[in-house]
Design brief:
The complex is a heterodimer of chains A (113) and B (114). Chain A is mostly beta strands. Chain A contains no helices and eleven strands. Classes of the chains: A mainly beta (113), B mainly beta (114).
Chain lengths: 113, 114
C-alpha cells in the first residue's frame, strides 16, 4: 500500500492567499484526520471524518479553516485567507473505523510570508 | 476533553543505557495508548501501542506499561542506540464514540550519545 498521500509537500505563499492541502487516505480506511504540528503547540487535531462525515471539528482554529471529504479517497483542508501564524506542518492521517492505529502521511509544510 | 501530559521534554542518555518516558491522561474512558516516533523532517510513526486490557507489552528493546488506576503509561527503551534519537509522542484516545480521536502529549526529544 502506498500509505497516506499528501500534496503539496511544501508550499510557500503570501499572506492573504488561499491554501488548499490535499490528502488521499489508505485504501479501505474509513476514518480520516487532519493534524497541525508546530513547535509551540505540538500535534493538534483539527478535524476528523468517519465515513466521509465530519465528526469533530472543535480543533479548527477559526472560520478561515475548512475541510471537506467528498468521497472515501480524498479530502482537502483549505485556509482562506492565510496568515503567517498558519505556518506549520499539516499532517493527514487515516485509520480503520473500528481500529485505533492511525497512520500519518508525510505532511504538508506550509510557510505563509 | 482528554488531556495528556508527557515528561520529560528532553532526555539525553549514553548509548547502551535505558530511557524512560512517562505520560498521564485524564479521560478514564480512554482505552488505547500508542507511542509514536518522529525523526527530524519525517512523519510520526507508530512504534508500539497498548490497550487497557493489558498491563505491559514488549517488542524487542521497547516496552510499554499501563496503570489504568493511576492513569499513567510509560515507554521503556533498553540498550539505546544512536538511531533511537528522535522525538517520541505518547497519545490516548477519547472514550465513548470517539475511539479514533487521539490526543498527543507534547513530545520528548531523546538524544542518544555514542
Amino acid at each position: 500500500d502506498a500509505g497516506v498521500i499528501q500534496s503539496p509537500r511544501h508550499e510557500v505563499t503570501e499572506m492573504g492567499q488561499e491554501v488548499t492541502l490535499r490528502c488521499k487516505p489508505i485504501s479501505g480506511h474509513n476514518s480520516l484526520f487532519w493534524y497541525r504540528q508546530t513547535m509551540m503547540r505540538g500535534l493538534e487535531l483539527l478535524i476528523y471524518f468517519n465515513n466521509n462525515v465530519p465528526i469533530d471539528d472543535s480543533g479548527m482554529p477559526e472560520d478561515r479553516f475548512s475541510a471537506k471529504m467528498p468521497n472515501a479517497s480524498f479530502s482537502t483542508l483549505k485556509i482562506q485567507p492565510s496568515e503567517p501564524r498558519d505556518s506549520a506542518v499539516y499532517f493527514c492521517a487515516s485509520s480503520l473505523l473500528d481500529g485505533n492505529t492511525i497512520y500519518f502521511g508525510e505532511g504538508s509544510w506550509l510557510t505563509v510570508v | 476533553g482528554e488531556n495528556v501530559e508527557q515528561h520529560p521534554s528532553t532526555l539525553s542518555v549514553q548509548e547502551g543505557d535505558s530511557a524512560v518516558i512517562k505520560c498521564t491522561y485524564s479521560d478514564s474512558a480512554s482505552n488505547y495508548f500508542p507511542w509514536y516516533k518522529q525523526e527530524l523532517g519525517k512523519r510520526p510513526q507508530l512504534i508500539i501501542d497498548i490497550r487497557s486490557n493489558v498491563g505491559e507489552k514488549k517488542d524487542q528493546r521497547i516496552a510499554v506499561t499501563l496503570n489504568k488506576t493511576a492513569k499513567h503509561f510509560s515507554l521503556h527503551i533498553t540498550e539505546t542506540q544512536p538511531e533511537d534519537s528522535a522525538v517520541y509522542f505518547c497519545a490516548a484516545n477519547a472514550g465513548g464514540t470517539s475511539y479514533g480521536k487521539l490526543t498527543f502529549g507534547q513530545g520528548t526529544i531523546l538524544t542518544v550519545h555514542p
